[in-house]
# Entry
Amino acid sequence: MLSIGLDVGTAFVKCISGSARVIFPSLYAYRTLERWESGRGIVVSVGEYALKMLEYPSAVVIRPVIEGRPVHHQGFLALVKEAVHRVCSSRRMVDAIRGDYDLSDARIVVGLPYSAGSDRTALTSLIHKALKPRSSLVVPQAAGTLVSANKRSATVMSIGQGTTEIVAFEDMKPVSGVSLMQASDYITSELGEFSYLDPSIVNEHMGEVERRAKMLADILSNRLASFMSSLNPTQECSKLLLVSGGGLLIPGVKGSLAERVKMQVEFAEDPVMANAIGLHILAGL
# Structure
């Protein structure tokens, strides 16, 4: 069976199979061919190729995922198909993605924000219609961090681009959670819409980035304290915090959080891919 873990975030798509792992920007774009170009019609691109379309005035560049939730279904499905195409190594499956294909031996696990639980059924239907896998499962994306850390009970804080997820798991079951709108965008949005894709922009504004990183850490640690106070202190999930997400790579965020959080904390070794790693493990169970 082919196992695929898929984390389609606001900023990046992260996907892992048994033979490959990929990451690319969560962007979808299209444009009409210019007068002096060969051919006619519409050109569609995703990922880094969509970003290159910004060179054309007529290009429409869309972020199909906003605040962790799919808001543009055509673009979202294009990202999913591209991710699966990139991680499927066999010639048969590569050809399949481009036309008729057979994923009848594949199990796909996709992560969504905790607050997007109501979208689970619709998303499962979209994936089945587009890919026709053997089975698919939609889970809270923070479950990936839990599994990748080889834990069964803990509270997970995953700092993405659009949302920060705080979810408590007791014996692998989500018992409580919240999706916060304060995330990496809180730091990078004022530097430009796509500044998160260009590390040089962050470096040019390091003073402002570090200042806002401390502010974000203040917000998240405060919301975490409130969240933890609602848990039963006898539960295992109240004793350990696992932290993941690309936000940890922004200068100042990890250190500021470590100073403010008053409980045992473990930071993911691979914060960007932690959710996808765990989702892939779940797909293989």
Remarks:
- Residues 91-100 have pLDDT under 50 and may be disordered.
- The radius of gyration is 19 Å.
- Residues 191 and 201 are 7 Å apart (CA to CA).
- The first strand starts at residue 2 and ends at 8.
